[in-house]
UniProtKB/TrEMBL annotation:
It is found in: Cytoplasm. Negative regulator of replication initiation, which contributes to regulation of DNA replication and ensures that replication initiation occurs exactly once per chromosome per cell cycle. Binds to pairs of hemimethylated GATC sequences in the oriC region, thus preventing assembly of replication proteins and re-initiation at newly replicated origins. Repression is relieved when the region becomes fully methylated. This is Negative modulator of initiation of replication. Belongs to the SeqA family. GO terms for cellular component: cytoplasm. Residues 61-164 form the Replication modulator SeqA C-terminal DNA-binding domain. InterPro entries: Arc_rbn_hlx_hlx (IPR013321), Ribbon_hlx_hlx (IPR010985), SeqA (IPR005621), SeqA_DNA-bd_C (IPR026577), SeqA_DNA-bd_C_sf (IPR036835), SeqA_N (IPR033761). GO terms for biological process: negative regulation of DNA-templated DNA replication initiation; regulation of DNA-templated transcription.
Length: 166
């Protein structure tokens, strides 16, 4: 059974700073920090994830604190895409295949995206030489994140979890 409690901002920041992976519950963090019995092992907590040659995935690279620092939907969208690029640099060019009915979603240049439709508002994906259109509603951005995750080798459940970060 879960209970709701209020905590001070500094304690919340401390708790978030000790998150080991996205989606880790406050109870799991506290159990680990307080060394209480019933602590879930990392094998029980970590989801199975798409593996790269270097073994990094977005689930073990991105922190909840970093994600929480992104103040807007567009900022979170770009941050998540940047983290996916960081983890999957070799396969990230697959995202260039993802497009809408009348619009290209990803490109290697802002000009190419601007030419593919009106009001595209292309932005560079942080840490990459890729650009993405950002003038879509949140539902479309979530769909794009799901498609990106699937292209990069995540399964459907993992892709949905990545989508829900937005």
């Amino acid at each position: 059974m879960s209970k709701r409690i209020e905590i001070d901002d500094d304690i919340y920041r401390y708790l978030v700073s000790h998150t080991q992976h996205i989606g880790e519950s406050a109870s799991s963090i506290l159990r680990r920090l307080l060394e209480l019995e019933g602590t879930a092992t990392s094998a029980e907590v970590e989801p199975a994830v798409a593996e790269q040659a270097h073994g990094r995935t977005i689930f073990d690279t991105m922190t909840a604190a970093d994600l929480a620092g992104q103040r807007s939907v567009v900022a979170r969208f770009l941050y998540i895409l940047g983290m996916l690029h960081k983890c999957h640099q070799q396969t990230f060019p697959k995202v260039l295949q993802i497009s809408g009915r009348d619009r290209q979603y990803f490109s290697r240049s802002a000009a190419e995206l601007e030419a593919s439709g009106t009001s595209t508002n292309p932005k560079q994906i942080p840490g990459s030489d890729f650009y993405v259109v950002t003038n879509n509603n949140t539902t479309r951005k979530k769909s794009m994140l799901t498609q990106v995750a699937l292209e990069l080798g995540y399964d459907q459940a993992q892709a949905e979890k990545i989508r829900d970060f937005l």
